Amino acid sequence: MKDHDIVDLYWARDEQAIAESQRKYDGYCHGISMNILSNESDAEECVNDTWVAAWRSMPPKKPSVLRTYLGKLTRNLSINRLKERHREKRNPDLVIALEELAECIPVPEDTTDERLCAYLNEFLEITPALDRQLFMGRYWYGRTVREMAPRYGLTANAVSQRLKRTRQALRAYLEERGYTV
Amino acid sequence: MKAMSGFDIFEKMTNVNDKFIDEAAEMPSPELAVAKTSRWERFSHFMNSGWGVAMLCALVAIAVTVGILAAGRAAGPVTTLPGAGPTHPTFAFDYVIEPAQDKFYHGDSFTIRTEVKNLSIPFTVTGSSQAFSADAWLVPHGSEDVFAAEGRINGLFAYTEDYVVQTIDQGEVGKHSGLITIPEDAFLGAYDLVLAYKDEYQVFEKVVTVEPEPWIPDNIDFSIIQEAPEREEYAPGETVTLDFAVKGFEPTIYSGIETGVPLERGYKVSAVLTPHGQSTDDASAIVGNVVWDTVANAAVSSLTWAYYTATFIIPDGAEPGAYDLYLCYVSKREDDDTAREKIFENVIAITDPHLLLAFSYEIEPASGPYYPGDTIKITTYITNKGDPFTITGSSQAFSAEAKLTHHYKKTEIIGQFAYDSDRVTQTIESGQTGIHVGWFKIPEDARPGYYDIDLFYGDRVSHAFSELFIEPPMTEEEALSIAHDYMTQRNLPVSLDRLTPNASLSIYGEVYNVNYTYMLYGIPTSYQFTMTVTFDGTLEDYQHCVWDDSAYYAVYTDAEVAAAVEKLNVEIRKTVSEQDIPNKRLLCFDTREDGLYLKSEIIVECNHEDGEECLLGHHHYMFEEKVIKSK
User: Fold this and answer.
1) In chain B, which residues have their Cβ closer than 8 Å to the Cβ of A131?
2) How far apart are CA B600 and CA B532, in angstroms?
3) Which of A120, B177, B206, B526 is most buried, by the most CB atoms less than 10 A from its CB?
4) Do B40 and A107 touch (CB under 8 A)?
């Protein structure tokens, strides 16, 4: 079933919408949640919560890209779940990723989501496709370097180097726009 | 201010643009990645190399979709396709562009050297001897269909007709090179390079850019720093060395296109030496092209001076006479027109090998303007710098003659040179100089414009010097014009610091009209001049004057200054000759409520010798200056 048909089911309040979403995007959402939580049962709960959140939000929402919409829901739910954990219990790979992010994005604490996303969107727009995909894979999907390297035909070291260069470029990009702390 | 934590950033990133999330949603399949491993490794190696880093901005190679070519689209020379399916070979592509640049113009060509590496299994092809080589072409950046893109620019790759059966082993690299020429009608902008072999291809984004052709003006405005040649005269077979510098003009915007001589574009500079007055269009007139030193053919920059040393070898058969040096700007493209600009006129004279003469002259007056009717005195100097020689002629025979020749119209003004009639036989020693004087009366109907001063000796040696400009005839009004700044200095010594009724003053101003003589140069002698200094004021202005008249008029010589202060109410009209005018002192006083003013008006009038007053030529010069403040 095509995405817009699934969205129509949500709008028609047809529970088949959840079944179709689960059938099509369970793996996708589960992958996002697992990368963040690194815990099977927690991830399953978050994915189940995703369908509920989707059911509650559509309508009024009518996403143009259902996959990313559901992915965002899963990501938010997983992050909220992660917040409940003690720091020491977090996924070590993710912790590293978060430290890398803090290093490359020197923005003040009170920066709004919209503003940060606006800068990220601008930066990603001018970033080469491969580097952009690696960056999003690492810092949006929470994938590990070891996981991405063989899929992109690169060595782990090459992926790390590319991510490092992209982070440096992002930092320079933000600093050029006056963002320093 | 505290920085946002990594966790906060991670959370806030959730809402970045959907397209970026979607793009990274699925990683490439492992099967596909295996085929691409070597390509990416190769790419990574390339990007990590010094060259790759340097070219990063221009040559970001992006892995592209591996697709199946439509039948017939792959224009490569391979004629036998390998088997499909799991044994399907995969390739890695690489390339080098020569010259190593990324900006080209219409008509430009560059060589592209391609490499295609077999990453997987051995396979066999039947084709030309260079069959295992990538095809290459350009498509406008972002073209969706890189095979049928509008504006596709194909490469020219030559293959031999020698058909062979080849086995391509795993890891084997096929290398090939071809030419890509940017068509005259190619789209402007960035182009992606497509390398293809068999059913694989790779797109390298923004590899080259087709730039708009710089606008080439008809007259290229180059600046020249001229340095004199070593000598003025050379004989055939000798070497002439000239030093000079060239700088292009500042680029300007013309119809939205930056013009000028861009650094990267450059223009080749050459020079030709031609007989004076002959067009460079006449190839036979060119004595020879310059032989450049080590900076030969360096690109001319619009920003910095390029210094050149031009070396000519005068051909043995070169005709004696004066020669001009033309600087030529030749675009890199050979079919462009060559623009030439004369930079040294009469830069050298080629002489008889045994008769080396050096010419020079002095002209009086030394500088213009020169008008019809003027008389010019020219003193010529001619020095024998060659071997001694003997002449038979008048007693002043070893003297150059001169003539003025209109630069364009070639009309001549012949000078009057006096010679003694005694004919003598003279031996002119090396180093001997003959000096001669001639007068040129510029005819009243002489054509205005530039004249060359030609010095010649006999009928074999001549030398032309720089141009002299004869002005159009003056009107009476022009003849009497005086520059506004001819009063170049004022000196106003003041002996009182306050003004009281009935006080006596000893104060004067001085005006030095030092330029006056210059300005009157060339006025026909039939004019006399009257200088009248007039105070322009009214009685009401002078209620506090220490003298009882409102104004006085004076032009004083130095000796008259003391007496002038006693003649306050005397109007003096004085007729002065040219020689009387410089450094006259004039006095004008005026007192008002708030101080004492020096104020005057100078009227220069002309009168014909017969007393008829000129109606033209008044010049008023006003100045007013408060010199003391009253109590």
Assistant:
1) none
2) 10
3) A120
4) no
DSSP-derived pairing of the beta strands B321-331 and B267-275: antiparallel
Phi and psi torsions of A104, nearest 5°: -100, -10
Question: DSSP characters for B190-214?
Answer: EEEEEEEETTEEEEEEEEEEEPPPP
CA B604/CA B614 separation, integer angstroms:
10
Is the per-residue pLDDT at B376 higher than 60?
Answer: yes
Angle at B189 between CA B113 and CA B191, to 5 degrees: 30
Question: What pLDDT score does A29 carry?
Answer: 92
**Residue B586, strand partner residues:** B509
Other CB atoms within 10 A of residue B601 CB: 18
pLDDT at B138: 94
Which of B3, B9, B12 shows the shortest C-beta gap to A181? B3
> How many Cβ atoms sit within 10 Å of the Cβ of residue B117?
22
One-letter amino acid at B54 equals A
ipTM of the complex: 0.87
Query: Distance (Å) from the C-alpha of residue A134 to the closest C-alpha of chain B?
Result: 8
Helix (H) or strand (E) holding B378: strand B375-384
DSSP H or E segment with residue A140: none
CB atoms B14 and A67 under 8 Å: no
Q: B56 with B83: CB under 8 angstroms?
A: no
In the structure encoding, which two tokens stand for residue B354, read together?
């045994």
Q: Do A152 and B12 touch (CB under 8 A)?
A: no
Rounded Cα gap, residues B222 and B430, in angstroms: 41
Q: What is the DSSP letter of B597?
A: E
Q: What are phi and psi of B289, to 5 degrees?
A: -75, 155
> Which of B385, B379, B354, B353 minimizes the C-alpha distance to B366?
B379
Amino acid at position B597, single letter: Y
CB atoms near residue B427 (< 10 Å): 10
The answer to whether B309 touches B243, Cβ cutoff 8 Å, is yes
DSSP string of B111-133, one letter each residue: EEEEEEEE-S--EEEEEETT-SS
Question: Which string of DSSP letters, residue by residue, matches B138-181?
Answer: EEETT-S-SSS-TT-EEEE----S-EEEEEE-TT-EEEEEEEEE
Instruction: Work out the mean pLDDT of chain B and round it to a whole number.
Output: 59
**Residue at B22: amino acid letter:** D
d(CA A141, CA A120): 15
Residue A54 · residue A66 · CB < 8 Å: no
Give B23's contacts in chain A (Cβ within 8 Å): 129, 132-133, 136
> Is the CB of residue A102 less than 8 Å from the CB of residue B9?
yes
CB contact under 8 A, B44 and A68: no
B56 touches chain A (CB under 8 A): no
Which of B275, B268, B274, B253 is CA-nearest to residue B298?
B268
Whether B17 has a pLDDT exceeding 70, the answer reads yes
Q: What is the nearest CA distance from A82 to chain B, expressed in angstroms? A: 10
On chain A, the residues whose CB falls within 8 A of the CB of B35 are 153
Q: What pLDDT is attached to residue A169?
A: 85
User: What pLDDT digit, counting tens, does each position of B274-308 carry?
Assistant: 777 766 555 455 555 554 433 333 444 455 566 66
pLDDT (mean) for B583-596: 43
CB B20 to CB A124 under 8 A? yes
Is A153 in contact with B34 (Cβ distance < 8 A)?
yes
Q: What local confidence, expressed as pLDDT, does residue B14 receive?
A: 85
Burial B188-225 (b: 16+ CB within 10 A, else e): eebbbbbbbbbbbbbbbbbbbebbebbebeeebebeee
Q: How do residues A139-154 score in pLDDT, each as one tens digit?
A: 898 888 888 888 887 7
> How far is the alpha carbon of B132 from chain A, nearest alpha carbon, in Å?
24
Asked if the model's pLDDT at residue B325 lies above 50, the reply is yes
